Structures are given as C-alpha cells and as structure tokens.
Amino acid sequence: MLYIGSHISASKGYEAMGKQALKLGANTFAFFTRNPRGGKAKAIDEEDVKRFLALSEEHSFGKLVAHAPYTLNACAAKEDIRRFARETMADDLLRMEFTPGNYYNFHPGSHVGQGSDMGIKLTAEILNEVLKPEQTTTVLLETMSGKGSEIGRNFEELQKILEKVEQKEKMGVCLDTCHVWDGGYDIVNDLDGVLDTFDKVIGLERLKAIHMNDSMNPFDSHKDRHEKIGEGQIGLSAMERIINHPKLKGLPVILETPNDDAGWAKEIALLKSLYRQEDL
Questions:
Q1: Are 168 and 124 in contact (CB under 8 A)?
Q2: Per-residue model confidence as pLDDT tens digits over 71-126
Q3: Residue 228 neighbours by CB under 8 Å, 6+ apart
Q4: CA–CA separation, 27 and 8 (whole Å)
C-alpha cells in the first residue's frame, strides 16, 4: 500500500487533522508539533486523541511523521538556542506518546561556524539527553541539502550522529528527495546507486520515511527550494520510480510541495495513480 499525505495544520487538533487528510485522499500526514517558527505548543485534548486513534484505525492510516519546529537547532553555538532545542524535543517526545509508535522528524541543525564535527557532537549530545528507553516514538534525522553550515549534508554526517547516540533503536532517517538531489545524490539517473550508498553508510533498515518534493534547483546545487511534483528538476518519472522501488515500498511519503489543499489532493491522486500494487 502507498501511504501518502501532506503537512496538515495541527491548530484544530488530531481528529480534525485526520479528517482533513481523508478529504485530501491521504492515509497518513505530517504536522508540526508546535508553531514551526516559534516555541508554543497547543495543549493536547486526550478525548480528541482517542477519536483520532479510532479514525486512524478505521481507515488504516500509516505512520504519522511529526515535524519539529524549524527554529530548533540542536548544534547551535549559543546555549540559549540549544536549551530551547533540548527542552522542545523533550516535551515533543512526551506529547508524541499520546499517539504511540509514530515518527518525530527534525533537521539536524546548523553548526554556525563551529565546524561539522562539533555540530555532530552537539546534536548527538542532545539526543542522548532526551531519548528514553520507554518511548515508542522513533526520532528521524532528515537528509539535508548542504546549504550554509547545515549538518546532515551527506549520509556520512548522519551516520556520525547515529554512531554517537546511545538509544540507537529509537533512531531513523527521513529522506527528502529535494534535499538529496540538491545535495549531490542522483536519484534521477542512479536511484539504485543512491540507495546502495545509503545502505552501506547508514543501513536501509534506518530509512523510515520520505519527504517527496521536486526541486527548483539543478543537481548538486546545495540549495533547498521545493517544487511541485513533476514541475522541477527531478521530474515525475523519477518520483514514480521512487514510490515503486521495492526497497522503499511501505514507507510513509509526505508531500512538502509549495501547494494548497487542492494542489496536494491533486498530487496525492497523481502519485496514487502511478503506484503499482502488484510489485509488493
């Protein structure tokens, strides 16, 4: 089955997100755990969560892919920014347990001049502080495009973080198609090669989710500008190969394209039409 959805506003609660996903033709979705540009989180209504869990079971939803706020930078040079990252992640992981067994995705961060080795060290330190053996949530490092001082610009940097994390069984990776294309991984002409490299460096068992985005930028540009499906430099044929690749089937696919609800519904329908069930 193709588990596909888009980002949905969490402002009206879990049940409303689930119903909105169904309106779009989706069977999973992503949501920001709090204001993506700030630190506020809406109080969780446990009755609302119960209604959502029943809805999710009724419609066989796939794994949800929650997203940490963009302002979270676990490897910042300033301690107050790192404190925000530490406290936010710890709180988010507690909140995620209301919907157990799902994914929490975050950008590894920007080292802002400290160097990638220090950025990797600092990010792993915070993960070691917030991850708990009893949690059911898997935390996902997102592949990044390599703009500025981002860490996670290649598979090796992600693996260096994973190596330093003590609760390794609580960790995974989210592959962003725009980011890896912009970062120098040719998913258009050599998808098998990219997946082989991922497997050798990190291990495909760590790949838990896909952010499906076309790119406004040419290959290896180290930028990060998403485009609508089939309208960018990656193209629809590559997207079709990705959703149908035997090593990727079953992973939740989240659209982060520059769209509105009507646009996401159209993209979801398009990708569903290109999905080959018989390959399972």
A1: no
A2: 899 999 999 999 999 999 999 999 999 999 999 999 998 898 888 999 999 999 99
A3: 214, 257, 258, 259, 263, 267
A4: 12
Angle between the N-to-C axes of helices 191-201 and 155-164, in degrees from 0 to 180, rounded to the nearest 10:
20
Q: Which DSSP state fits 251?
A: S
Distance (Å, rounded) from C-alpha 243 to C-alpha 241? 6
CA distances from 268 to 3, 166, 193, 228 (A): 10, 37, 27, 11
Cβ atoms of residues 52 and 15 within 8 Å? yes
C-alpha closest to that of 142 among 119, 164, 172, 116: 172
Structure token digits, residue 12? 């009206």
Asked if residue 253 lies in contact with residue 1, where contact means CB atoms within 8 angstroms, the answer is: no
- Which two tokens mark 13? 């609660």
Beta-bridge partner residues of 214: 227
Rg (CA), the chain: 18
